[in-house]
Amino acid sequence: MAATATILHADLDAFYASVEQLLDPSLRGKPIAVGGGVVLAASYEARAFGVRGGMPGRRARELCPQLTFVSGHYKEYQRLGDAAIKVIGDFTPLVERISIDEAFADVAGCTHLFGPPDEIARTIRQRVRAEIGLPISVGVARTKHLAKIASQVAKPDGLVIVDPDTELQFLHHLPVELMWGVGPVTKARLAEMQVLTIGQLATTPGRSLERLLGPAAGEKLAALAWNRDPRQIKAHRRAQSAGAQSALGRKPAQEQFFRPTLLHLADRISTRLRAKARPGRTVTVRVRFANLKSATRSVTLDAPISATVTLAALAEDLVRAVLADHPDEKTISLLAISVSHLEEDWDLELELPLGLPDEPCRPGSRIGLARWAADRAVDKIRDRFGWDAIGYGSVALGIFRSVPDEFRELAEKDL
DNA sequence: TCTGGGGTCCTAGGACCC
DNA sequence: TCTGGGGTCCTAGGACCC
Asked: Where, by residue number, is the active site (predicted)?
C-alpha cells in the first residue's frame, strides 16, 4: 500500500494583482498590472493578453491597450500574505514558507484533529477566500515536488489531489518545464533529445541525462521524474546570504559613478545584517556591463563584518578588480553586492577594522569601535524616524530608484 | 526581446592539509 | 623525490526560483 498524500503546497493566485482587485472592486474582472516602468505582477485577465511579470510596461501596453496600471499597496501585500499563511498554521506547525505568497505544509500529524488532507486543503481554501478575500490554489501529494506541481496545475483558484496510487500517470504526461529545476536552458537541452514530457525524461537513460546536465542535476531530475523526492518540510530555515542590487541604465565605469551606488547597497545590506546580529565573512560583487554580460569577484575574510563603511570599502576594491580585468568594458548597467557565510548570533562590538594597516586588528580597537558606534547611532535614529532621516541617503547620493524600496523589502528573506 | 530585485544551489578548478 | 588518495575551503560562473 502506498503512503498517504499529506504534503500540501498552497499558492495565492496572481497575488499582488488579486490584492489590488480586492482593495478596489472596480478593478475586478479587468486586465491590470502592478508597477509602471516594469510590470511587477499581472492579473489573469492581463495574462490572457500575454502580459507577464517582469515585462517592460511599454511592451505590456502594446500587448493589451486597455491594461490598467496600479501602483502597489506593498504594506497590504505583506499583511495579507502573512494572514493567508497563518491560516495554514492553524492546522499544523510544520509550515515552510517559500515566499510572500507560497508555502508547503505537512499535515500528517494533524489529520486526527481536522480530517484527511483533502478536507484540510478544502477548508484552507474556503477560509482564505472567506476571511481574507483572496483566491488560493492548493496541491496535495506524497512529496513536495508533486504537491508543487499539483498546485500549478490547479491554478487558478483550484485544488488538485494526487492519489499515491496514480501519481506517475498524473506526472508523466506533463511537460518537463513544470518540474522544479527545469528552466529555459534545461528545457531547450532536453528538447534537443526529444524529451518533452516528464514521462520521456523518466525513461531517458541516466547516462544521457548526466552527460547533458551534469551528475548532480541529472540524478536529481531523474529521481523527481519518478517522484522520488526525499525533501522534508523545514519549518525554520535561516537565510544563507543577504544582498542588494541596482540597475543603473548605462553608467560610465568610473569611480564617481559606482562609489555612491556601492555605498547605498552596502548601507541597505549592512543595516539588515546588524539588525539580526548576523555579520558575514564572504563579500561578493557582481558587475553587469552594457552588453548584459557580467563578472563577479568575491573575498572571504577571517572574521565576519557588518559595518557599513567596511562593506562599502571591500565592495569598491572588488569592483576595481573586476574593471581591471575587463579594460574594454566602459559601461556598467548593474551593480550588486551580496554577503554570505553569515554568523548565527554575533556580538557586533567585536567587529574588526579591516583594511586599515596602521590600526591593530583586534576586538575593541579604536576604529572598529568607532564604526560600530556610528552605525549603531544611525540604526537607532532610523528605527525612530525612518530610513531617510539620516545616513547615506539615496536622495543625497542621487541614486535612481527603478523600483520602490517597499517592493525590495517584500522580496527580502528574514535573516 | 534585451525586465528588476532578492535569493538558492551546483560545478569545476585550484590550494592546502593529512 | 615521486606517487596516490581523501577531504575541505575558496573562487567564478551559471541555472533557476519567486
From this structure: 102
